[in-house]
Design a protein that fits this description.
The chain is of the alpha+beta class and 300 residues long. It has helices spanning 17-28, 98-107, 129-134, 173-184, 209-217, 226-229, 239-246; strands spanning 5-11, 33-35, 44-51, 66-73, 76-78, 87-90, 110-114, 123-124, 127-128, 144-156, 160-167, 189-198, 201-202, 234-236, 251-252, 267-271, 277-286, 289-296. The strands form four sheets. Strands 1, 2, 3, 4, 7, 10, 11, 12 and 13 form a nine-stranded mixed beta sheet that branches. Strands 14-16-17-18-15 form a five-stranded mixed beta sheet, covered by helices on one side. The chain has a two-stranded antiparallel ribbon with strand order 5-6.
Length: 300
């Protein structure tokens, strides 16, 4: 069935996430791949790419927080809330109040309501807002709930601040930059962004595109297998269980080889004795039934 799993790339500046996927497809000579959360062209850092059946793993990776290093500028506002946009208003002689910034971050921890940038992928009547905005349609983004777990101010100057942010999937760092600047009475936009953590992986595990090409040419295995890419509990099943799972049957207690301590409703990666992923199942015990298949996978 070819290569199946996840590849971790350290995305360079000045290239779209889709272009990175295309480079990976070409390097690995695979037919199907997709990223698990895009980075804008001006951003760098960890991009998780599903290969083959690896593209089906994303729904089971949502629980993992993301971590970024962001540089916020306060000398202007832009229509995209980042450095690539058109300036809307400029602010001269900016002097950032670091303590006021820290106070704002402290007030905006945990679950908050956030308004996405107008140039975003949120949809209105089936069309992404960035396309409608480019077509000069006045459609306002819908407020959404996001979770800010941790913020650390790393460095700052008169008109900029570098911060480390740990947050939930779906958080717009551009919105944080915009809202922080507004609260301080200045402009607010994202100058630089680097992603350090995503889907349970860290930037230290990622390869540059050149490193990927070199390892592939050298015959090294760069694809993280399906079962190892999932950071959820795992359980092996007997051969009869593999047959039943591949047929789509409810999972029986008698198939399970490993003891697990999990709560009802949790996801478990079910593998055969060789560690090949057969399915992601939800633990819902009832009589002799252990649980039910959420997403099936075909072993090599």
């Amino acid at each position: 069935m070819g290569k199946q799993g996840v590849v971790l790339i350290d995305k360079p500046i000045g290239i779209t996430s889709r272009k990175v996927v295309d480079r990976v497809i070409k390097s690995l000579k695979v037919k199907r791949a997709g990223h698990f959360g895009s980075l804008d062209p001006f951003a760098t850092g960890l991009l998780c790419i599903g290969i083959g059946q690896g593209t089906k793993l994303l729904p089971f990776m949502h629980a993992h927080q993301k971590e970024y290093i962001a540089t916020v500028g306060f000398d202007m506002t832009t229509d995209t809330d980042d450095i690539t946009g058109n300036p809307l208003e400029r602010f001269n002689n900016v002097a950032v109040d670091r303590e006021a910034a820290l106070s704002w971050f402290n007030e905006n921890m945990g679950w908050i309501n956030q308004v996405p940038p107008r140039y975003c992928a949120q949809k209105y009547q089936g069309k992404p807002l960035y396309k409608l905005t480019r077509a000069n349609m006045d459609v306002q983004p819908r407020e959404k709930q996001v979770y800010i777990e941790e913020v650390e101010v790393l460095d700052s100057g008169n008109d900029w601040m570098e911060v480390r942010i740990v947050c939930s999937r779906g958080t717009y760092i551009r919105s944080i930059a915009r809202d922080l600047g507004t609260s301080l009475g200045h402009g607010g936009y994202l100058r630089e962004l680097r992603r350090l953590r995503s889907e349970g992986f860290g930037i230290g595990e990622a390869l540059t595109l050149d490193e990927l090409d070199g390892k592939v040419e050298g015959g090294d295995d760069v694809v993280i297998p399906l079962s190892k890419a999932l950071h959820i509990p795992k359980a092996r099943v007997i051969p009869l269980g593999q047959k039943g799972i591949l047929e789509g049957s409810p999972i029986q207690f008698s198939w399970i080889m490993d003891e697990l301590e999990i709560s009802e409703g949790n996801y478990v990666a079910m593998t055969n004795s060789d560690g090949q992923l057969l399915c992601v199942a939800r633990y819902q015990p009832s009589g002799g039934i252990w649980g039910y298949i959420e997403r099936g996978f075909r072993p090599d």
